[in-house]
Amino acid sequence: MQIYQPHPWPLTVEEAITIQEELRHQVITQDQFTQPVQYVAGVDMGFEADGTISRAAVAVLSFPDLQVIETNLAYRPTSFPYIPGFLSFREIPAVLDALEKIQTKPDIILCDGQGIAHPRRLGIASHLGVLLNIPTIGVAKSLLIGKHEELADTKGSWQPLIHRGEIIGAVLRTRVGVKPVYVSSGHKISLSTAIDYVLRCTPKYRLPETTRVADKLASNR
DNA sequence: GCGACAG
DNA sequence: ATCTTGTCGC
């Protein structure tokens, strides 16, 4: 797919904060689909050579049947360290590389990490969504910020994730007896619609099939 | 100032 | 994320 030249990648946290403060105003947390959802994509990251090399895997699946349509891998030198709150600056460059050769443009991308459930409301899913101008969903395996009530041990049960009096996402049980995932709007999608798609992409395991396929691809080496 | 802290 | 064996349970 066509990747437009993004903003220059920062070298310092200070520069990164400036970019986040700029882009946060472009995030849309309402449904804005141009067409019916036919393809969903997942992204997974891996690192090699002591973390100096980033490896990004993308998997495009059909929706709602979740069959693998296309995959791609990309490598590039790691240019930013892992710092909580700045994950996107470490991972998005390689993700864009991996998406570049994808022929089937996904209608939604499920990201490994937060959407707006972020200190400045620009987690990796929101950041990627704004850069690509595509609907994205944040599906994180653990909490970055926010508080929530306990949730029932039933598939599909969820509780709002609250931060500074705002609902920034949802803690969602995708399977009985497993730890919940943290879902938030990335870009061009509402929280309720995001929850719906995450559940529809999670027929069997805790994590969406999209990220599972990308994960398998990235680790099968 | 003291913790918390996506992957 | 990554380093790693066995082990618990369906």
UniProtKB/TrEMBL annotation:
Signal peptide: none annotated. InterPro entries: Endonuclease-V. It comes from the Bacteria. Mg(2+) binds at D44, D112. Its EC number is 3.1.21.7. Pfam families: Endonuclease_5. Belongs to the endonuclease V family. This is Endonuclease V. The gene is nfi.
